[in-house]
Specification:
alpha/beta, globular
């Protein structure tokens, strides 16, 4: 059965326990977070999983729509995983993908609003402000092609050429196969991203081959393709038509998913880039800028 999803874990589930030498999996749990790490090492594995070679880390977390007191624990776990994907030193460019005017697609821009940009702050100024030694960081929201007339990949290529970062982090809302994944899953990968692929609107790839530097993607699933969901629930292939191929399903609490998801992703990135600043101090800084 064909289905649309951006999640490597869902593609892996569709393999129905078939074993491939080029697909390695590791599962473990840290507190309330369940981690599935999938590593694709060769072309056969990439073809089977329908994902480029690289590492895909899926964190299953408590639902963002429900209150829980484990945010700091989740941030600690996610930051440890993200740290392992990034170079230890150098300027990091974080880019928020998506359309801020469409709530299910606003994860990237909303996350960028809470990520501390430091490239313009000199060492002396940071010390005077009591911020200590800051790792250089640049943050940018690209908008979408329909707003700017420019492909997102083209915008980022220009920024990389100008800033010469050691790595790029791209943040984007994702599509899942199952409703149960929405708002309770975070995926990180060092294989980059193809924006819109999960909902049949593929844009130009954003990866290390295109940009010339490591590209780390972070995303939270916020939508399910209606045709995929219907086929999955009925366990039979449903013929696509003009109406069904344009139908996307999102939770009623999507505003809360985006708000809390953006906060979680942003604080995770901040913790990796500026580990000496506490979460509370960081929130105070970024919300006052």
């Amino acid at each position: 059965m064909n289905f649309r999803t951006d999640l490597a874990i869902e593609q892996h589930e569709s393999l129905e326990n078939k074993m491939y030498a080029g697909i390695k999996t590791k599962l473990f749990k840290k507190g309330s977070v369940k981690i599935t790490r999938i590593t694709v090492t060769d072309d056969e594995g990439a073809q089977a999983l329908m994902k480029p070679q690289g590492t895909y880390i899926t964190a299953e977390i408590p639902p963002l729509t429900k209150y829980n007191n484990t945010e700091s624990e989740i941030i600690d776990v996610l930051s440890q995983e993200l740290k392992g994907l990034l170079p230890p030193k150098g300027l990091v460019l974080t880019v928020g993908l998506g359309n801020q005017n469409i709530t299910p697609d606003a994860l990237g821009p909303e996350s960028c609003n809470l990520i501390l940009a430091t490239r313009h702050i000199s060492g002396e100024l940071a010390e005077c402000a009591g911020l200590g030694s800051l790792r250089p960081s640049a943050v940018f929201s690209t908008g979408v092609l329909g707003q700017t007339g420019v492909e997102t990949a083209e915008v980022i290529k220009g920024l990389v050429k100008l800033l010469n970062p050691c790595a790029v982090i791209v943040i984007d809302a994702l599509a899942a196969r199952r409703l149960s994944r929405l708002g309770c899953t975070v995926q990180m990968s060092d294989a980059g991203i193809i924006p819109g692929s999960g909902v049949g609107n593929r844009r130009s790839a954003i990866n290390s081959s295109v940009l010339g530097v490591p590209v780390i993607s972070i995303g939270v699933p916020t939508v399910v393709d209606a045709l995929t969901l219907a086929s999955d629930l009925s366990e039979k292939e449903i013929e696509e038509n003009d109406e069904s191929k344009n139908m996307i399903i999102t939770p009623r609490e999507i505003d809360l998913v985006i708000s809390r998801g953006a906060r979680l992703v942003a604080l995770t990135v901040n913790k990796v880039l500026q580990p000496h600043i506490s979460t509370d101090e960081m929130l105070s800084i970024v919300t006052s800028v």
